[in-house]
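Whether sequence alone determines local backbone shape is best considered at the level of individual chains. When preparing material for the folding task, we compiled for one chain both its residues and its backbone structure tokens. No coordinates are needed to read the tokens, only the vocabulary itself. For completeness, the protein is quoted in full, as a sequence line and a line of structure tokens:
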Amino acid sequence: MEEISSLMHGFGVALTLFNLGLMFVGIVLGVIIGVLPGLGGANGVAILLPLTFTMPPTSAIIMLSCIYWGALFGGAITSILFNIPGEPWSVATTFDGFPLAQKGRAGAALTAAFTSSFVGALVAVIMITFLSPVIANFALEFGPPEFFAVYLLTFCAFVGMSKGQALKTIASMMVGFGLAAVGIDTVTGQVRLTFGFTSLLQGFDFLIAVIGLFGIGEILLTLEEGLAFKGKSAKLNVKVVLETWRELPRYWLTSLRSSVVGCFMGIVPGGATPASFMSYGVAKRFSKDGERFGTGQVEGVVAPETAAHAAGTSALLPMLTLGVPGSPTAAVLLGGLLIWGLQPGPLLFQEQKEFVWGLIASMYLGNIAGLVVVLTCVPLFAAILRVPFSIIAPIIIVVCAIGAYTVHNNMLDVYMMMVFGAAGYLMRKLNYPLAPLVLALVLGDAAESSFRQAMLISAGDVSVFFSNWLVGGMTGLALLLLFWPTITVLLKRLRGG
């Protein structure tokens, strides 16, 4: 098959000494980021993105994606040992992971979490390998109306899955659209929303905004909460790992269900957090030991970890094939591709085959490397939490400032980073989601261009977005998702009445 031969070529690209070294460096950095509450995959990739500017694009994306894999793995360590979710999607892991640690089975819980994470990611990567060329070839037939319908569907999906925060999600997204509009209009060449500042002619730099919103904003919030780490120690040895591996096959159906839920939520995009909670709930519903969930069941660790990794990995599928990120981290990676002069989408598979298949091959290798690293170095990573956060936080802030400065070698970018950091802190305090803002900031220009091109083609007739079954179906589904929160409220009132 063509996919297999392309993948073999991708392994040839990824299996260089330099790229293998970057994989392990990325995994270690990612696990550290995942272990430290207040950071996370999107934050870590955003903060460390400037380090990759001098690298070839393939090597750069390999390192950044491995930081992401490592962060996914690392979140489970604090959840199980300290009952502190290192990542939002690790909250469900605490339900049974920490009780297992309290019973003296921390090693078994960690082995189950890491192995399940590996399985979930592996299923998602296999799906990406065989589905991405099909989707990319199909998307080659897309015109401006179809691409706008895809962007609209992505934006509306965030609103439809906002779980009671639809208005706040829309508000956050509107802020992102406003920031994306600053600069020179690509269609007319007119200057927009610069207020006379020449530094804003190129618009707000995506990377500066993300470093501030995620990195600085999260650190300020974490410092305010005053985290104190108290947890259980873990001993991982070959005996514990093998004993746990012998136990895990009995949960194969749970792993399969969780992988399916995770892949679906990663593509939709729902994200790793709802995927982990959904899988935990499904596993509890169908398990013969469901009533014992929350007391320290290995199955209660397997379900959320499998789904979270499947969702986090499969979010890269729409990013690569359609240029639409399925998660905040995928949005940051999309920004990185644009910085390196690569345009994600169907043409990427035609024009940059070496890059695409090198990245997909690195997903297999990075997943294996991540499993090896976390199984062998858990005590070392757990020891990081013995360092006071008052020492770690200034180091992270300095790294953020250096990263922001190196984008354009301009102190103004550092000041802008701090402004975005304050905005991110306030948004988190007021419970406004950051992901819709990031998504709108990344895709705002592309969505606007596709919309205006479609309007030019149709002479201003909006029915162009219902001109065929494909664009009409996506537009209709997008509108359904947009009004879904209102529809559910009305249905509840009707039932109550």
